Amino acid sequence: MDECLAIMFIGASPPSPADFKRTPLLMRHAVVLSALRWLKLKHIEYSDVVISLNNLYEYPADVPPVYVMYQPGDGEAPAPAQSVHEEDQECGSKDGLCLFIVHGLTGADLAHMSHHAKIATALHYFENGGKVVGLDRGSDPTFIYHNPALFPRMFPWLFSYGLGGFENNKLRTGLSRTAHQKHSLLYNDRRFQMDPHFAFMIFNHEQIRASTKGGYLLTERQHFNDVVGKLLNIDTDTL
Predict the structure, then answer these.
(1) Which residue of 13, 122, 160, 236 lies most exposed, with the fewest beta carbons within 10 A?
(2) Residues paired with 7 in a beta bridge
(3) Three-class SS of residue 8?
(4) 27 has a pLDDT exceeding 70
């Protein structure tokens, strides 16, 4: 996990165990074990998974399971990061819990930056020792075409037992991919509607499939003359 994830605290003092308890960064053994058992019981893709309690309880429960880096700060916020209501550069609290402040680029910043400005900012970040998150993938890519297991793998909490994916051969009646998607969005419990990513992923995949099909039709050179002839000879009145 340390190869792809790290936690950075910025503040006047290093984080304490009390600070860690206020963050969602701790390994809750009972929750993880319950989730693994649920997946093993409810999802066909996890049926052969062997749960190792020894490995699970090797993760500490009071500190994050990945590397924690602390960057000391002087409590002063740079002028560009201040709001219009701030009168000085001091940013802190005299009493109560001290909040950590992380400075970085937000969507609003990126919207007004040119392409060259983004490159310059990225180079400045790396030259000052900045790091990035790298997520590995399997040796074989997952296809979005004729892959009934694709959406059950991405959304195991929506597809019971890992079944019911689109374009699967277990359907007894003819149902197109589009009709199946609409049917899912009309479920009585509305779990497909309420999920924040499901509809977006469907829309994204349909755009990819439509553009790929369009590109395929355009590049079929052997049919070019026939298509042009039909377009030139089309009956405009009928159209």
Answers:
(1) 236
(2) 68
(3) strand
(4) yes
> What tokens appear for 233 in the block?
């000879």
As a whole number of angstroms, the distance between CA 69 and CA 198 comes to 35
Total residue length of the chain: 239
Q: Which of 150, 178, 174 is nearest to 162 (CA)?
A: 150
- Residues facing residue 70 across a β-bridge: 9
Query: CA-to-CA distance for 150 and 154, rounded, in angstroms?
Result: 6
- Structure tokens that stand for 101 in this block: 């402040």
Q: What angle do CA 205, 208, 214 make, to 5 degrees?
A: 140
Residue 11: HSE in the Cβ half-sphere, 13 Å Cα cutoff: 15
Tens digit of each residue's pLDDT (9 = 90 or more) over 161-177:
888 889 888 888 888 88
Closest C-alpha to 159, from 51, 46, 48: 46
CB 183 within 8 A of CB 174: no
Distance between start and end Cα atoms, the chain: 60
* Token pair recorded at residue 228: 């042009």
d(CA 177, CA 20): 46
Q: How far is CA 134 from CA 2, 4, 53, in A?
A: 11, 5, 28
pTM greater than 0.90 (yes/no) = no
